[in-house]
Amino acid sequence: MKKLLHILITLTSFTAAAQDSSDKITLVIHGGAGTITRANMSPEREKAYREVLNIALQTGYNVLKQGGTSVQAVEATIHIMEDSPLFNAGKGAVFTNEGKNELDASIMEGKTMKAGAVAGVTNIRNPISAAIAVMEKSEHVMMAGKGAEKFAKEQGLKIVDPSYFYTEARYKALLKAKESEKTELDHDAKEKVIKKNQKTGALKPDDLIFTEGRKFGTVGCVALDKFGNLAAGTSTGGMTNKKYGRTGDAPIIGAGTYANNATCAVSATGHGEFFIRSVVAHDIAALMEYKGLSVKEAADEVVMKKLVERGGEGGVIALDKNGNIAMPFNSEGMYRGYIKSDGKSEVLIYKD
Ligand code: ASP
Questions:
Q1: Pocket probe mutation, ligand 1, options 239, 240, 277, max atoms within 8 Å of Cβ
Q2: C-alpha to C-alpha distance for 212 and 170, rounded to whole angstroms
Q3: Residue 184: DSSP 8-state
Q4: Does the CB atom of residue 218 touch ligand 1 within 6 A?
Q5: What pLDDT, in 10s, does the model give residues 54-86?
Q6: Residue-level pLDDT at 217
Q7: Domain 23-165+213-350 has CATH 3.60.20.30
Q8: Ligand 1 centroid, distance to 11 Cα (angstroms)
Q9: E strands along 73-224, which residues?
Q10: pLDDT, tens digit, for every residue of 126-138?
Q11: Sign of the dihedral through C-alpha 46, 47, 48, 51
């Protein structure tokens, strides 16, 4: 009897300890990858990015610190970035070839492995919340276009006029992208010109236009809550000048977003077509699951090797159940940051 009681007490305290991982709460964010260099960034612009990234980190951290779940923390964090015109998500979404804003978002919860996503929505102010509603309030994983909008409205989410997403900077970027398309269809060739000119230092304004265009300003967040549960979320306007209902990796579970308590939570940013074909987020989790790699080894393997070999530009943020972080990117820069249980945070932009 005594022995049984002892086993019972040990088991209870073990469960209690397993349920409270307050010392491990962690939140990681990205605000997109691409040609982000010191040379094409003004101090004012850098300050503005750092400010929003810090607010986003602090917002998510407060949710986790107050005992919120990782899904709640991801939602609150992504709202900050969706509401900022600086990022290609929500308010700052890029324009399609037809001059519209079509937004994608997804969420995945590591404990239940439940997931939700929306694609090609035009009037939902915070697409990440629509993705969460799909996960929590419907029996589906992904809803697209008008149906997703109808569902979001029924769920009482904030609906806006599509003009809410207009920003002058993004509209100009579309016009420039269209211009370069007329004169230059082969992006690879154009890139080679840029690289050559960068060597000689003779960078023409036209080259810079294209360089600016290669920014993937998608936002993402991965979090670990005090219950030891992971979640990952991603939200985007896609790519400037995208055509005919094009959908990227951001709303595709396994490509742009993935979470599994047994391995890791991942959110990606980059050239979506490559990320879909390489099933990037799930591939990282699979390397951990089947090959026993650490989160850093797995994320590096996929982003710095596999994607590079296949020509896929971008990066990911990844987090495991012990709070270990990886933030690899194969582009010139990636807006990124993390905050740990002690409240210490760091925001990074460039490679060095
Ligand atoms: N991955 C996104 C897409 O292809 C773009 C981005 O990361 O900014 O739609």
A1: 239
A2: 11
A3: -
A4: yes
A5: 999 999 999 999 999 999 999 999 999 999 999
A6: 83
A7: yes
A8: 46
A9: 103-109, 115-121, 142-144, 215-216, 219-224
A10: 999 999 999 999 9
A11: positive
Please report which helix (H) or strand (E) contains residue 318, including its range. strand 314-320
Q: How many CB atoms lie within 10 A of CB 66?
A: 10
- Measured CA to CA, the distance from residue 309 to residue 322 in angstroms comes to 30
- Is 112 part of the annotated catalytic residue set? no
Q: Which two tokens stand for residue 320?
A: 């495991």
Q: Which tokens hold the place of 142? A: 């992904």
Structural contact between residues 225 and 70, judged by C-beta atoms closer than 8 angstroms: yes
Interstrand relation of 230-236 and 219-224 (parallel, antiparallel or unpaired): antiparallel
Q: Which residues pair with 222 in a beta bridge?
A: 28, 232
Residue 182 confidence (pLDDT): 38
Rounded (to 5) percent helix, strand, coil in the chain: 45, 20, 30
pLDDT mean over 95-105: 95
Instruction: DSSP letter for 123, please.
Output: S
Q: Is the CB of 238 under 6 A from ligand 1?
A: yes
- What is the rounded CA–CA span in Å between residue 159 and residue 45? 29
Which of 89-98, 101-110, 165-174, 310-319 is least confident? Answer: 165-174
Polymer length in residues for the chain: 352
Indicate the range of 16-20, 73-77, 142-146 predicted with least confidence: 16-20
Q: Please answer whether residues 80 and 120 qualify as being in contact, where contact means their C-beta atoms are separated by less than 8 angstroms.
A: no
Is the separation of the CB atoms in 122 and 101 below 8 Å?
A: yes
State the closest ligand 1 atom to the C-alpha of 314, by its place in the atom list counted from 1.
Answer: 7
